[in-house]
Amino acid sequence: TNPTSSIDTNINPDIQSIANRIKNGEATRIVVLTGAGISTGAGIPDFRSPITGLYDRLAPLGLPYPEAIFHINYFSHTPEPFYAIARARHPRNLKPTISHAFLALLAKKGLLHFLFTQNIDGLEQDAGVPSDKVLWAHGNWKSQHCYKCSAHYPDHLMKKAIMSGDVPYCLQSGCDGAVKPDVVFFGQSLPAEFEEKEKEVPDADLMFVLGTSLKVAPCSRLPGLVKGGTPRVLINMEKAGDIGNRGGDVCILGTCDEGVRKLADALGWRDELEGLWADA
Ligand code: CNA
């Protein structure tokens, strides 16, 4: 390479081509799908990463299979394992990652059409993504109800239960249901809004998929709804789904934070991004 060249040879041409698309105004309806890998940098382990992921650490709880801990049928008769890990999973006082800040920057620039998150940590909102741009496909930890009679359960008592690890039970007389955070467990329906928003995915002129193994339906099908020829960009530690198989796909393998920094460099947004993140 020519050391005097003004071209930054460190920027991967695929990343530069995505950045150019955005800079040229060809991508103004960006749809994003995020998963647990965008938040591991904030200190919340994902499910499926070997060793660090939650599923590799559940052996002492004697579950029939790892996903049982988040399966509504299992929870209905054995809620104890969920509460045994709840304290460690509960997102509290965590700082969003720079990847969350990148999403907030897309929104600030009017380029974020919509964000589907599979995460329940709320960090995208903490980073400044407006809530009307986010669909929490798997619900959130901010509220809780009895899984049986759906009665609301007070926040302060839930906090106590999470901190102590004791299962909280419904306060309604005659009901003995365990209380469950309003997180979508396996076997439960997604928010009704999901199907509405899913219909808008083909309108995307660019899709970013960050930090997800694309193993959980129905979010896993969202990248397949993007129109052929529309670029799909995966930023993840590993390949996921079929991203990379279509013309126009770009896979930026590595951490989400490294990936968004590279993109921000290619876009000339790096300082703005770091500033937004510092203020989050
Ligand atoms: P997953 O199946 O655990 O996959 C995570 C993916 O992220 C894997 O492909 C990892 O290789 C990748 N990954 C991990 N760390 C990084 C990183 N720093 N940078 C880039 N990639 C990374 O999780 P999914 O989200 O795909 O599965 C959906 C589940 C996980 C949803 O139901 C979530 O509610 C649930 N979950 C959410 C959280 C959270 O809210 N932060 C945490 C753990 C699990």
What's the short version?
By secondary structure, the protein is of the alpha/beta class. The protein contains 9 helices and 8 strands. The protein has helices spanning 13-23, 72-77, 80-89, 98-108, 123-126, 155-164, 193-198, 256-267, 270-279; strands at residues 30-34, 112-117, 134-136, 139-146, 179-183, 206-210, 232-236, 250-253.
Strand order of the largest sheet: 3-2-1-6-7-8
How do the helices and strands follow one another from N- to C-terminus?
HEHHHEHEEHEHEEEHH
Please give the alpha-carbon distance between the first and last residues. Answer: 39 Å
Structural class: alpha/beta
Rounded mean pLDDT is 92
User: Uncertain spans, ≥5 residues at pLDDT below 50?
Assistant: 1-9
**Count of alpha/pi helices:** 9
Annotation, overall tally of beta strands? 8
Number of domain modules: 2
Strand content: 5-15%
Percent of residues in helices: 25-40%
Query: Taking Cα atoms only, what radius of gyration do you get, to the nearest Å?
Result: 20 Å
Q: What is the 3D shape?
A: elongated
> What is the CATH H-level superfamily of the largest domain?
TPP-binding domain
Largest sheet: 6 strands, parallel
User: What's the CATH topology name of the largest domain?
Assistant: Rossmann fold
EC number: 2.3.1.286
Binding site for NAD(+): 36-40, 46-48, 118-121, 212-213, 236-238, 256
Family: Belongs to the sirtuin family. Class I subfamily.
Domain Deacetylase sirtuin-type: 8-270
